[in-house]
Amino acid sequence: MVLPLFVSFVMFRYGEIFKTQILGCPCVMLASPEAARFVLVTHAHLFKPTYPKSKEMMIGPWALFFHQGEYHTRLRKLVQYSLAPDTIRKLIPGIEHIALSALDSWAASGQVINTFYEMKKFSFDVGILSIFGHLDGGYKEKLEENYRIVDKGYNSFPTKIPGSAHHKALQARKRLNQILSEIIRERKEKRLVEKDLLGHLLNVKDEKGETLTEDQIADNIIGILFAAQDTTASFITWILKFLHDDPKLLEAVKAEQKAMYESNNGGKEHLTWAQTRKMTLTYRVLLEGLRMASIISFTFREAVVDVEYKGYLIPKGWKVMPLFRNIHHNPEFFSDPHDFDPSRFEVAPKPNTFMPFGNGVHACPGNELAKLEALILIHHLVTKFRWEVVGSESGIQYGPFPVPQQGLPARFWKQSSCPS
C-alpha cells in the first residue's frame, strides 16, 4: 500500500492539513491531534461515518458503526457495558483455555505457521466467547465456516457474478443470518437469561419499549466480529515480532510473567484480573506495539454541512481522514518514533496523540478486551512455550490492516521440548 508513503511525502510539502482525491472523491487529510479531535470528538456531529455500500451490505446495515444519533448511542452503551472491565474479567478462564489450546496445537504440529492467520482464529474464538458465552460446538463450526467466506470476500471486487468471492460472501452472509436466528430462537424457547452480549442485545428496549429485530441483532454481532478479529490478530502478531526481535526485552517480559506463573502454583491456577493489572512492562509493550503498528492507520468521515476549521473550508459531502499513523509516528509527540521503546509509556502521552482504537463516540468499544486477550496469550506463550520467526523478510503488507510480511511465519515449541 502506497498511502503511508504518499501521505508522508505530501505532509512534508504542505503540512498537517491538505486536500487530495481518494478513489475519485475529494478528501481532506488531517495529521494533527487537534484536527483529529475536532472531527472525532468536539465537532463529531458535523461529520458522519462513511463506508462503501458494498461493505454495509456485507456486514449488515444495522451494524453499530454505520450509524450515529439515538440508535448509535443506545447500542454503543450496551456494547460498552458488555465489553467493560467488570464484564470481561469473568472471561479470563475461557480466554486462557482458548489461548492454551491454540498454543498447544501450534507446538504439536511442528510446522511453520502463518502467525497472523492463526491469531485470526484465536481472536475469532475469543469474540464468540464474549458474544455468546459457551456456544454449542455445532453452531460455532457453522458460524466460523460461513464467517471465513464472508471475511475472504469482504475486500474483493463487488460483483454479483456467481462464483466470485464477493458473491460467495453474500451467500454466506445470508446463511449467517439463518444460523444466528436459530441460536436466538433456541435462547428464547429455553428462556435463557444470559449476561453475555447476545443476552443484552435480546433484552435491550428503546424508549417505546420495543426490542431489537433479529436483523439488527445479527448485523451487530457480525459487525463486532469484524471489528474485533483482524485488528486484534494483527496487533498480537506484531507484538510477537517485536518481542522476538528484541531478546533483552523478551527476557524482561518473561521475568515479569514468570513471577505471575510461580504465584499461581506453577501455572496450575487461573490468572486473575488483579494480576493482569500488574503486568506493567508487558502492558507497556502492548501500548508501544499499538503505536508502532498503528493497526487502525486512519478513519473516514464525511462532512454533513460546510465546515470551517482554522481558516480552511471543508465543503459538505467531502471526505475527511484523520491520520492516526502519522500522528503516532510524529517525532514531535514520540521521540525516535521508529524505535520500539516501551519505556516511553512510563509517562502518559500528550492528549490526543495516542489513538490506537480511534477517538470519540465511534472509538472501538472492545479495546479492553483486545488488550486482555493479548496479555493472557503472551503470559502463557512466554512461560510455557518458545517461538522462532522463520525467514528473513521484513516490512509490512496490507490486507487491509498492516501485518508483518507473509503473516510472520513462525515455529512454536513447548519449553520442555525446545531444540537446543
UniProtKB/TrEMBL annotation:
Q: Which Gene3D superfamilies match?
A: Cytochrome P450
Does the entry feature the keyword Oxidoreductase, yes or no?
yes
Residues involved in heme binding = C364
The record's Gene Ontology cellular component field reads:
membrane
Catalytic activity annotation: 2-cis-(+)-abscisate + reduced [NADPH--hemoprotein reductase] + O2 = (+)-8'-hydroxyabscisate + oxidized [NADPH--hemoprotein reductase] + H2O + H(+)
Keywords, A to Z, come to: Heme, Iron, Membrane, Metal-binding, Monooxygenase, Oxidoreductase, Transmembrane, Transmembrane helix
Residues annotated as coiled-coil are: none
What is its pathway? Plant hormone degradation; abscisic acid degradation
- Say which enzyme class the record assigns: oxidoreductase
Q: Which cofactor does it need?
A: heme
Alphabetical list of Pfam families matching this protein: p450
For this protein, what is the EC number?
1.14.14.137
**Topology class, membrane:** Single-pass membrane protein
Q: Where is this gene product found?
A: Membrane
Give any single GO term for biological process.
sterol metabolic process
Could you cite one Gene Ontology molecular function of this protein?
heme binding
What family is reported? Belongs to the cytochrome P450 family.
In its UniProt entry, what is this protein called?
A: (+)-abscisic acid 8'-hydroxylase
Report the source organism: Gossypium barbadense (Sea Island cotton)
